[in-house]
Amino acid sequence: MANPPAAVKLALESICLLLGEETSDWKKIRQVIIRDNFISSIVNFNTEELSDVIREKMKKNYMSNPSYNYEIVNRASLACGPMVKWAIAQLNYADVLKRVEPLRNELQKLEDDAKENQQKADEVEQMIRDLETSIARYKEEYAILISEAQAIKADLAAVEAKVNRSTALLKSLSAERDRWEKTSETFKNQMATIAGDCLLSAAFIAYAGYFDQQMRQNLFATWAHHLQQASILFRTDIARTEYLSNADERLRWQASSLPADDLCTENAIMLKRFNRYPLIIDPSGQATEFIMNEYKERKITRTSFLDDAFRKNLESALRFGNPLLVQDVESYDPILNPVLNREVRRTGGRVLITLGDQDIDLSPSFVIFLSTRDPTVEFPPDLCSRVTFVNFTVTRSSLQSQCLNEVLKAERPDVDEKRSDLLKLQGEFQLRLRQLEKSLLQALNEVKGRILDDDTIITTLENLKKEAAEVTRKVEETDIVMAEVDAVSQQYLPLSTACSSIYFTLEAINQIHFLYQYSLQFFLDIYHTVLYENSNLKEVTDHTQRLSFITKDLFQVVFNRTARGMLHNDHIIISMLLAKIRLKGLTSEPSYDVEFQHFLCGRQIVLNGSSMSKIDYLTAEQIEGMERLSRLPIFFDLISKVQEDVQFNIWLESSSPEQAVPFLWPEEKPFTPIGQALHRLLLIQAFRPDRLLAMAHIFVATVLGDTFMSTIEQPLDLATIVETEVKPNTPVLMCSVPGYDASGRGEDLAAEQNTQITSIAIGSAEGFNQAEKAINTAVKSGRWVMLKNVHLAPGWLMQLEKKLHSLHAHANFRLFLTMEINPKVPVNLLRAGRIFVFEPPPGVKANMLRTFSSIPVSRMCKAPNERARLYFLLGWFHAIIQERLRYAPLGWSKKYEFGESDLRSACDTVDTWLDDTAKGRQNISPDKIPWAALKTLMAQSIYGGRIDNEFDQRLLNSFLERLFTTASFDREFKLACKVDGHKDILMPDGIRREEFIQWVELLPDTQTPSWLGLPNNAEKVLLTTQGTDMLSKMLKMQMLEDEDDLAYAETEKKQRTGSTSDGRPIWMRSLHTTASNWLQLIPKSLNHLKRTVDNIKDPLFRFFEREVKSGAKLLQDIRQDLADIVQVCEGKKKQTNYLRTLISEMVKGILPHSWIRYTIPADMTVIQWVANFSERIKQLQQISQAASTGGAKELKNIHVFLGGLYVPEAYITATRQYVAQANSWSLEELRLEVIVTNNQNSVLDACSFGITGLSLQGAICNNNKLSLSTSISTELTLTQLRWVKETYAEKKANVVTLPVYLNFTRADLIFTVDFEIATKEDARSFYERGVALLCTE
User: Fold this and answer.
1) What's the predicted TM-score (pTM) here?
2) Which of 78, 122, 912, 1258 pairs as cysteine with 1331 (C-beta 3.0–4.6 A)?
3) What does the DSSP 8-state code read for residue 1054?
């Protein structure tokens, strides 16, 4: 460009100036621009080199020029614009540099100084590095020196430690050596006796499991005796539980709910060390709980033979090896036989067992336990041979220890804890010692290298020493703690002893009635209630006072809960048994064993008839009672005191002699009230046996408190019992006497509680299905179920009980079972349930009110109006015949089951005939009522259908004839005549139901027997019979084992005297004396009658020959049995099963079954039988003697004691045959006449036979004519039986036909006799009085 714009030129001039090429000439400028380095010189321009002159020029010449800016220049030239911008920036930068130059200079100076200092620093660092290198080298040298010193120290410490270890090891091992030497010595002794010990232990495990503790001990002692005789060594002090188990096992078992007594521990050993699978007898369920806990980790399965899944469970257990518990083994299934026999076979490495038609792999870990809750079940021999029996039935000692543990836990937890520690001491510490010894031996065995290098051995030895010292210290403290625990335990021991005695009394009480079955759980529930739910213990802190309350309440609750499940007559029995137990626990009272023994067995004392005292106003029975009582030391002068006491006869005749019994014993040492009551009881027993029950009530009140028995008389609070006492799976058993229905009580209770209840009648297959469905539904919903009349299906009840046992029910579920008292009801159900016995209240009044309440008002008030009066007559008749049953065999010959069903049938009959006769009319004439039809139907069908005795039928007819007559509608009609000797009971005047009920309610609550047509003395007979019944039942409770020696060992030892020094139990000494006395009492022999050609034709000879033969055989057997018993008691003979049973029955006062070969009363005691048997043999001796001296003809003239013959009815037949044969008459022509005389020596004619020993009940006989009497029985001196031909017999008017019974039970009718009536009474009066002849009392 030749001539550029001014702005461009200006810009380029300034650029040239900055580049040091100052010019204003354009050419020069162009030369500068076009140079190659122009752009690079601009780019690489160094502002610092810009001089101040150029800078000033730039400012002056260009910067001040307005045209010198970027915008102007850039418009002129896009190339020059940026250069101007660059120039301006450079100039500005130069200004800045000018301003900061001093600083830059200073910075440069500082940098120079820094560089100099850095150089110095580098020199110093180098010096430091050199020094550090030197230090490191010195450190290494020092470390080597230190490590060498440490090694020396370590070697020194190791040597020192080894020396210490070796010293400690020597000390500890020497202490262990002493212990091990003792153990080694013990081991040597064990090796010497190992054969005998193992033999005893093996025999024990194999055979002893079935028996209780006492029998096991006896077996063990017997086996030990055999080993001694065979010279086999064994440990005489061997403890079976210690020998066959170790402490850790026993502790584990106890943790698994095994009771801590010896019996259960022995059983647990058998369950662990069996060869044959165990069969467990487990009434209480303790073993089941233990096994389920013990094998819980192995997933044990519980099943039952009645379980539908039984086979499936068995197969599963066999395959997989799970333990199996099979319950209800009484329903054993033979499919299990191959399992019990272990019938296995091996095929190709598999172990197989055949189950039915199937082969199953058998796991080696399989184990099976069989169990039953029924202790009475009898197993077949083939099952017994396949199993090991293990009996968990509780014993006295085990229950005593359980109860003691429980009361200590409840009342003295502090002492119980100390006691538990003491029990653990022998287990846990000894176990710990053994574990340490094992670990020491293991450590010694596993040591590698030198023994002194291992600390674990020293540590183990030190721990062992510490533990041993701790055990020693604890053992030393044991005596102090034991004394404290013993003192407290001794305080509670009488309570635990009473618990044991009470339970075993309840266990045995089923001997008096099959209904009385009580489980251990029943008693433990009572015990738990008394300890933990006792309101009397609130706010009482004194331990002695609390114990007193607990003891008293225990007896009270036991009585309350058992008595409500008993018949009313048996309440006094359980009360007497409880009083006896309570008396044993009273330290302030003697045991009174002799007195109680006399009370129960006094009648067994044999009396010498010739030496007995004679007191005019005493009967023969009272004299015998007095003589027997005088044998007691305390009553040694009883006879003289009775003779001296002028008031005695007055007391004897009083109505309540038990209220003021005279002191007929020495009073040097006054008795306590209890002692006085017991001795009064003995006096009442001897002189007024009819008041024995009343005196027994007084005795119970003295021992157990005045209100003891009164609580049961209060109304039964069934609601509270069902709510609080009864668990869901516990059935409520409502038992009633035949003819009395208790189901209404359960339904009423459900209504009161507003609870739904399902009622089902049992007796058909349909009923069973309904019942099972109802129960299955109710257990889930909590409803109640009532099954009625379950006694009709005893087989199904067994299944029901097993179902209830395994039931998991809703908390509100309850099961009520109503039943008649029936022996077929399963025992397990009775034990599992809560029993309530319902009896109708006695008395005519209560009976009639019950009748009226059962007949709807509308039914009784229906037309015709005479219906109500007939119903009243029917109610009276029903009450009379039912109340007379209480006085059987006097009221009726036996207890017929007259019940509500008979009453309903009679009402239906009355309605049918009355409606048919009335034909809708409002009234009907009494003479139009079909009396004959009503009487006949009731006599032959409704009531009479139950009667099987001709004279009972006459009695029934008598009442019907007297009551159901047209005269019954008369105002003065007599329902009963001469009640209590003077007044008549008249029919109420009225026809409305309300009038009859009002009349009944005005009757006295109790009625005398005369209301029923019986003599008032019948009450005396009834009470005497009930007293005798009480004694016989209490005697049955007397156990064969010497259990009081076991239960009261400590107290008895202190009180025993020299008389017990022979070591035999009380029962054995008593039995020995009794058997010896009986051998003297019973005749030694009986000669047989000699048969000839002539005398064999004589019917009397043939009869007596059979009698003598039977008597001689029985006599021989009886004398042999008694001789064997004497030898057993003297230790000269071993017991056989037969003798064991015989002894058991005799100790309980029961007549042995093998001796019963002729008819006797069912409740006859053995002593009564022996006396009776002796009299029979003596009579047969006289007969045998007469036949041998006078021949067969002499037999006819003998006065025969008819009740002493074995077959008395055969004698009557023989006399008839004798007369017929002698006179050539036919038997059908003969008729019997009876002549009663007071002359023992009356001459008998050819057709007469003399009978002695007959007694007449309810009447007296004068001049061979009868009249009613108030006396119960009159003995007939001599009765002549005379057979006459029918045509020669005298015809007598007003004759009554009487039965002749074998004995007082009136069960066996021998023959009938006709008597003439002396007074105006008709024959019906005699039947109502129960007049009869007895061959023997």
Assistant:
1) 0.75
2) 1258
3) H
